[in-house]
Amino acid sequence: MANQPDILLFIMDAAQAAALEPGSPSLTPNFDRLRERGLAFTRAYAPSPTCSPSRASLMT
Q1: 46 with 56: CB under 8 angstroms?
Q2: Is the pTM of this model over 0.85?
Q3: Which of 3, 16, 5 is nearest to 38 (CA)?
Q4: Within 1-60, where are the H helices?
Q5: What is the DSSP letter of 50?
Q6: Could you report the per-residue pLDDT of 18-38, keeping only the tens digit for each?
Q7: b or e along 6-16 (b: 16 or more beta carbons within 10 Å of the residue's beta carbon)?
């Protein structure tokens, strides 16, 4: 069996993406470390403008 990459999906309800970007005044050392060692999914489209239906669509 081929090695498959590990995937971490963070779904945050009350955080803006700008809070996790490099140079942000927020202190997020663990997120910074994950970002430096991984890939960022920087473009996404939501099926609904509200949180709950958008999160549910990820599971279908």
Answers
A1: no
A2: no
A3: 5
A4: 29-37, 51-58
A5: S
A6: 777 777 787 888 888 888 888
A7: eeeeeeeeeee
